[in-house]
Specification:
The protein is mostly helical. It has one domain. It has 5 helices and no strands. The relative contact order is 0.20.
């Protein structure tokens, strides 16, 4: 049952990630904003779900669907890494460093926000 939950959540997360990617390309074409949005929202969801579900027992299936599946399919560290490498490799050092800083600061902040909202 756990594998099915991860499969379903991952599929949904990947579809949402694809939609955010299409939206982000139109929003800011020269900056990987869609990866930042996906990682930030996934951090918010993960912080909220892990904290709120840890307060209740018997909700393990939701952790597999949402945390492992959805957040795993929705967020994308490998894409963040590739996009950052590409920016730096193209000589866009400031954009590359901005991408690193924004992803770290916003995602850590969204984890904290998710935890705060769950209480």
């Amino acid at each position: 049952m756990q594998y099915l939950a991860v499969f379903i959540g991952g599929g949904i997360g990947s579809l949402v990630r694809f939609a955010v990617s299409k939206f982000g390309q139109q929003l800011i074409p020269n900056f990987p904003i869609s990866t930042l949005i996906s990682n930030a929202l996934s951090s918010l969801i993960l912080g909220y779900i892990l904290t709120s579900l840890s307060l209740k027992s018997g909700n393990d299936i939701y952790k597999y669907i949402i945390v492992v599946g959805f957040c795993g399919g929705f967020s994308t560290f490998s894409t963040f890494s590739f996009e950052t490498y590409t920016l730096i490799n193209q000589g866009e050092y400031l954009l590359g460093l901005t991408n690193i800083a924004l992803n770290l600061l916003i995602c850590i902040g969204f984890i904290a926000t998710g935890i705060f909202l769950s209480k």
